[in-house]
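From: lab user (bench 3)
To: helpdesk
Subject: output format question, protein + NDP

Hello, I'm new to running complex predictions and I'm not sure whether the block I got back is the full result or only part of it. Here's what I submitted:
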Amino acid sequence: MLDSYAVIGNPVSHSKSPLIHAAFAQQTHQSMQYTAILAPLDAFQATVANFRQQGGKGLNVTVPFKLDAFQLATRLTERATIAQAVNTLKFENDEMLGDNTDGAGLVRDIESNLGISIATKRILLMGAGGAARGVILPLLQQRPSLLAIANRTPRKAEALMEQFEDYGNIYPYHFMSLNEHFDIIINATSASLQGTLPELPGNIFTHAVLAYDMMYGREPTHFLKFAQLNGVCQVADGIGMLVEQAAESFFLWRGIRPQTKPVIAMLKSQL
Ligand code: NDP
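Helpdesk reply: Thanks, we reran it on our side. This is the complete output you should expect:
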């Protein structure tokens, strides 16, 4: 029987994870299958238990179950503990290991694929939801000179600052008081999903080396277009992060690090 993995979410049919992991498995000659599971909103735990009973080895967890997975795991990696969210589960004997690979995926995309070192940079992270929470520790571990967090609901950015202040130089910012200079500006809000962008002064992009939107699609998002108009050097969407976080999950499950660049290129050609 093939080792079985899946992405679990609701909705889940749009997920690119089955495509990505099939490409990884083929490239690394792993005998495994990877499917997508739609879990009822009130039955995450039962759906996971059923998958396990049928011999499932691991799951990627997507919206809206990352918190449920955090609570369900019997052991957590440090980055999952601190993010308080789990996007990868690994089943071994009686144990259910919970990890969060989103931040490692973002860092690897920025540093390895885009060739931009995070150390000593001034970073602005917009958003304070699940995606933002998952990337703060891995970003701070690269030793930026500062990490500012701006969110539409400011108290959530303030709460994140309080949670992470022991790990690096982190500040809460208000969108409209953003008139300083940043090197890397990351959009971790879901504004792009709604076809809009956070209210931002254009001049924050003037000296920036990178504008990064975690959202991806066929066309550049409003945020990336706005950044380009205002003089940013380079823009990137979240397709690289998506593939890199998947590679990190694959490594956790199979102990092999797949090549990501050909898979990123394949996905981009299919958008
Ligand atoms: P959440 O729902 O947890 O958080 C949404 C965040 O966006 C909140 O901070 C919210 O602010 C803010 N927001 C929503 N609408 C607007 C708006 N119109 N203007 C300004 N801020 C807004 O979502 P996630 O954190 O899970 O996901 C965020 C984005 O990241 C999504 O686009 C998702 O697709 C992407 N993502 C990409 C990944 C990848 O691998 N590429 C991985 C994970 C996520 P408030 O607190 O005020 O409500």
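A quick orientation on your result: The mean pLDDT is 94. Let us know if anything else is unclear.
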